[in-house]
Queue: 3 jobs
Job 1
Amino acid sequence: MERRTFLRMLAAGTAGAMVGNIPFEVLAAAGKTVNWLTWENLAYDEYISSFVKQSGIEIQKGFIGSDDEQFAMIRAGGAKDWDLITPGLDKVELYVASGLLEPLDLDKIPNAKSLYAPFQSTALGKKDGKTYGIPFYWGINPIVYRADLMTEEPDWSTLFEGEKYKGRLAMRDYALEGIAIAAMYLGIERERIFKMDDKELAECKKACIAQKKLLRTYWNSIADLTNLFAAGEVVCAFSWVPPYYDLREKGINMGMAKPKEGVIGWCDTCAIPAGTAPDSASAAHELINFLLGPDYGKTLALNGPYAISTSMARDSLSAEEQERIFIKDMSVMDSFVWKENPADYGNWVRIWNEVKAS
Amino acid sequence: MKLTGIEAKRRRTALVLTAPNVLFVLAFCVLPLGVLFSYSFFQVDFVSILREPTFDNYNRIIHSETYRGLILKALIYGLGVAVLCGVIAYPLALFIAKRVNIYKSALLTLLLIPLYTGDLIRIFAWRVVLGAEGVLNSLLMWLGLIDEPIWFLLFSPFATTVVLTYNYLPFMLFPLWAAIEALDDSYMEAAMDLGSRDLGVFFRIILPLSGPGLVAGFLMVFVLVVGDYLTPQLMGGSSGVTVTSAIHDMFGAAFDWPTGSALAWLLLSSMALFVACVVYGFYRSPWGRGIRKQDK
């Protein structure tokens, strides 16, 4: 028996035991549950309790540790356990190619009309005019640095050249971003970054090999990088946003730089696995609509802090709160390079391994 | 009961007792390795695995300087750390086995304590010791021996080697201790009576007779070091890449299970070959008498 069928029957059975004389099938149809596979920090009870109360839909949560892990799980037959999953916008294509997702019914997601323009127009997450993964929340991966230990604001070149900060820099151990940043540093057109030919990739590889000599380390977990900043081991790194806020709160003068050549933007989506029962799919659509709406958007902006993909919560936030999640001046989005999945990503990973082994 | 009956019963009992273990190893070790082996001949096309056998994966890896280098690096680290552990563990094991009486079990327990904590805790403890603002650098600076922190103490091959040696020392120490503990003191006394002194006694008596312990310790440390990718990743800095992390990347990030499987199998075969050569070399050497004798 599938997990969700089992859970539904279990829920209905418990209710049935209490009510007694109502036929089992009726109860089974009434007790709607969404099995939601997502990041833990998006699904805290206090974030979604209002939805559960209003809709009567029960949410069973499961958590992912990485995008790759999620794909591997769904690809290996795990789709039947979940009604709603959270693939990266750049990864939706892989799921669709594997026939793992079903198209979303945008009529059931009215809040989708307020998606920010770049998310409306992006080709990612869609195929043949249908939307399979709808942008849900997003952010950027900037350069974070110890403003107290650096004399000037860094840009991408800081991570590739010069002796001044040699041995005090760090880079994420991730082929996609590592090579994309080398491409931005080399001035490769933004539209070409994830479609580079062998010659351009070879140039990026050369830059990355030169970069390796300047690095203290490649980081794998953001908590680890935060520690390295705090201990002064690393003064400047391609990072995620959290160390900036976490360490400022601890009184360290941190800086965040968004190089004009481009900043890596990321976005996660909501997607429904193929084969989800109509009832559960309909409940999942309701949950998606809530996740793109004002209540959830505000909660996530204040606590995450992360921005959702629609403008629904924007007006309820102060200018400072908007600034924290990069939605005060929307033109900042123009400098984003949204992650895409290169056609031969295996080759990118091999190049990255060659860089690290050089 | 007749002798043949007893024999038959003994065989049956042995079969019943060993069958679960054999089945377990078959199901959870041999079978997955077999699956991995078959995958190593497949191809990957975007998100699908093409089950058309080919040697391309093996060819690509064998002709890649990077992967050859990573496998070699893993074997060198395995050997190097095993030798370091051996050098440190011998005097310790000798001391505990032959010089300590009352506190023997206390000492042995003490040496096991690091293993009670998790890998990550040990690694981060070493970060505190070796870091730029860490215990060691602070001490050296306080003593006025250095003006600037020594950066290569952390995030370097040096740091990786120190932590690997520390982590896996008990795996060398315990087999050695057991072997030396079982060693009859009268052999050493006889050697001394005949005029042999410290190093002579060690190389002619102790080393050959504790050979089985040394080989057991070497095998454990070697295998554990080759398979450890967390320590090099978190202590080795930008040079912390390992063949194991490359395999991990192939399976996870690149969705290239076939190449990952081929790399895993090449690593496994190289390890087996390398270990066989080293152990055979030791077996043929003058110090291998201990294992040779047990063969008879």
Note: DSSP finds 14 helices and 14 strands in chain A.
Job 2
Amino acid sequence: MADLPGDRNRVVVDGDVTTWAELRASALPDPAAVLGTSRQALAAVRTHVDAGTELLVAASGRVDEDMRDELRGDGFHVVTDAGTSAPTCPREPEPGRLWILTSGSTGRPKRIGHTLGTLTTIGRRQPPRVWLCPYSPGTYAWWQLVTLSLTQPGQDLVAVDAGQLDEWPRLAAEYGVTAVSGTPTFWRQALFRHGADLAKVPLVQVTLGGEPVDQPILDRLRETFPAARVSWIYASSEVGAAVVVHDGRAGFPREWLDHAAPGRPLLSVDGHELVVRSPHHGATLDGPVRTGDRVEVTADRVLIIGRRGSDEINVGGAKISAGVVRDVLHAHPAVAWARVRARRAPIVGQVVVADVVADPSVADADIARWAAERLPEYGVPRRLTRLAEIPVKETLKTDVG
Amino acid sequence: MATLDRSRIRDLMGEVLAARGGTLPADESTELRSLGFRSLDFSELALRVEDETGTELNFDAPGLRRIATVGDVLDFLQDLQAA
């Protein structure tokens, strides 16, 4: 059995305070796809460290029956609460291989091969922290916190399953959480739901990732947690953690483009698309990877706007980025969250529309006026739909825009 | 299928214009150009009709035609609902 530097770190899961060492589980079948809760996923990971089991972990809700059949067809034993289903096409396991599922925001989730080494992207010793992990088991962001806690002493982990997300500030206070990592959608929902109460959680580190990060959300988090370092990370299953920014500003410094340094990702822009050559890439993804993310290069920053193609709305031949419109709406002081999309319309083909979660005392006309003052006429949302709550997928992301 | 009558479509057209600081005149022969009612406003009006009826309009059905006056807009959207 392998001992790890993080074995004595505290791991809180389902209200149970334990350690990585205590999470060691009985042997897993090999290869295994463990579809379950945070506890089952964390125990499987610790077992992988000891036995080298080829492993995929995911929340059961993210893997439908078709995908389970696919996994069994690809040689995996599918382990769930209901028991273990044997592979339909058994094969030899690949020792040390870890698989993660992409978030599926661009379609059906696909598997990307990694190892514990390629998933461990934080090598520098970090100050002691108690991390809240709201991410769904098996996602890239979840692995980032899990590998940090496994490989460095003093990095405790408080895992929160989807059903506990609404009450995370209470759990954070109860277990002394000092650092939280979440998507911008997660943070918007937290600010909308809990408002000033969030400030009672004495965070020293606030991290965002998984979606484009705009300046207003960074500013609001800085106001809410004045003692915290606010960081954002650009990472994906394919290229790993490629950008980490701590200066409180959206985007990353322009001088980081095309700057080669040993052990660091090489960032470039080709046709408004971010291209990354990363040492943390997944298996078979060596070399430059076109990320599919659209960027805007300003005088001093590179701003990540959103997905290419799906981000663009064509209004009678005039093109506008849904991400740009979304950022304008997010900058409105009363808007907690916005989703921008195209809607079919006569004459112009498409118009921009938006779903928003906003202070009910602020009229639609006020939000429309705000947008009209900052966007070209064809970029102003022509319909605003008010939602009572911020819709959050299991991946903590917004599904569109 | 729910449909909106001409009067209700007029009300919605008035709301679209009001949002841009304009008003809808009673005379249906008024030129859209003089009102500043443009393609995007027309599109928005169609979406408002869709939202109110809960039905997606088939924009291709009535074919191309000249839409120059307030009356043309109301005719077009009435025809669209019937298509």
Note: The mean pLDDT of chain B is 87.
Job 3
Amino acid sequence: MPLIKNGEEIANDWMFVADGSALPDHTKVTVSVGRFLALKAAQGNEPGPKGVRLSPEDDPAALEPYLAGLSLIEVAFPKYTDGRGYSQAQLLRRRLGYSGELRAVGHVLRDQIFYMHRSGFDAYETARATVSQVLEALAEFTVAYQPAASSPAAVFRKRHGA
Amino acid sequence: MYRYDQFDAQIVRERVAQFRGQVARRLSGDLLEDEFKPLRLQNGVYLQLHAYMLRIAIPYGQLSPRQLRRLAEIARDYDKGYGHFTTRQNIQFNWVALKDIPDVLEKLAEVEMHAIQTSGNCIRNTTTDHYAGAAQDEVLDPRAWCEIIRQWSTFHPEFAFLPRKFKIAVTAAEHDRAAIRVHDVGLHIRKRGDEVGFEVHVGGGQGRTPHIAALVNPFVPEDRILDYLEAIMRVYNRYGRRDNKYKARIKILVSELGEAEYIRQVEEEFAAQRPDEKIDLPAEEIARIHAYFAPPPLAEKSAGSKLLDAAKVADPAFARWTRTNLHPHKTPGYASVTVSLKPLGVAPGDATDAQMEVVADLAEQYGYGDIRVSHAQNLILPHVALDDLPAVYAALDAAGLGAANESRITDMIVCPGLDFCNLANARSIPVALEVQKIFADPAYEEDIGKLHINVSGCINACGHHHVGHIGILGVDRKGEEFYQILLGGRADEKAALGEIVGPGLRADDVPGAIHRVVEYYRAQRTSPAEKFIDTLERLGHQPFQDALYAAD
């Protein structure tokens, strides 16, 4: 499935390993939050997966102690009408300070991507939008009313010269 | 009123372009109907029984004459010559073609209007007191805060795919004319000394499981209200139910968690916001928006009007209208006028293109260019000099807008019902019109006094039947329409839900039953000053129920 980041299609060298399946030797894998926390509890500081995949009901705060060691967090959108992933993203970026890649996976559509971007996502795995459509979606609005995890800055700041 | 600056205009222009693209992709088949649906809904486009319906936002119910004329033009050019004003202070057009909607949106953008978030599972139009800025009993004009909330909630990236729709209402008056306790969030602006803050109610609503909102915080200081709303929205977005659309409103979250636990979660989220998460709206921005709502430059007048008094003597119909359709203004010599959209025999809330133009002209000539839509589906001219009332009434009456029935029994709130809506189980407009006929004599109606009848064609309750003093709910029983009657609801500061009194009635039996209830009230009231709802509360529902079911 195409993966789009920073305005271009990139190769996806990560893999999601479902609960119950064996982990490969390398660390470029994402696992569920439950498995990730269990591995951390069991392995302590040994290297483990460098990625995690959030389901809509997961609390991102559970990852707080490990965020510095994570390179990829995937947020799953099983249905694009389920908006919980936007709150997870805002929490990760703005409250918990996560700065690695934040990737939307699942039912990711062109017309959700602007909201995803503003909520803090920087990568989109989507079967339903091309690179040019993603770029078009990101450029549809040049102004935003409220502060969020990323640009554009809130219009009330622009109005008053900030 | 608020005027767009370059940024507001830019956002609305970009929205029109975006929606034009979405419609093109839908028409080409690139976008599946299932994927298009939430997009069109967030732009107010419904697929109804016969056609697409377009709902246009009227932020907190305020219109300029130019905007109302533009709505008249759209009614004429793209619809069948009329529009329907809704209980959320919006307007909807029932016969617009999908391919024309981008053009309609462009015409709206030219007059600083849009259809953004008038439907869908997002934050909807913020509503308020239709006398805002004119009412004697308000602590301040709530419209500036409504505009601040409008801007904050427009395209909020985190809250566009909520479990369900989300409605916010604001009042600043002791007498609640905005029905805040039956909204997802109800805000009552209060003052503590010089400090302005918001009393926050959450989890009210109607629909199939009606709830009166819980008081969640008695005083959130004004500079923190957006942060507090973000906390409310985030808790709802994360934990509101998504497994069943009928249990997805915030009222169910509040009731399943229990008020105490719900409040704890909101306060915890609010307290967890880091300084850089706070929406620090600059004081200059708050002042900028408030400046748009400065009182109009009303010429100084004495408290009474000889012209008015003489006209009342000359014309009893006018005199009656001044008794029913005026609301006291904070400035001596002025009144707020209700333009009733409930004349006999017309679908409640409908106005023709010509009528809209008459109201626009009157607002310009006599009303300081200010028009409001009330949640009771009427129009308001909030600032009219008493001296000008005879001329205003004459023009309204000539346009079929002179009904003297504000808050009276024929001033019903009525949903479109099965004549238009694909959710409805029964027609609501015809039954309302039949009830109106019983009370068609203006003198009789005036004698009955204030009495709200609300009619819904299904349990989704768009006609607010739960909070009518008398509610009428259409249901379908084996292919036949029946109407259940509720008693004792109210939407004001003493908000209460009506109770269904017994078995449903056939449509033909509804007017007679309502008539018997009203006659029972007239016989039992302590004086004409005792309102229907007060007599009902004093005597209890049983004798009224007995009257309802008594044979003719």
Note: The first strand of chain B starts at residue 45 and ends at 47.
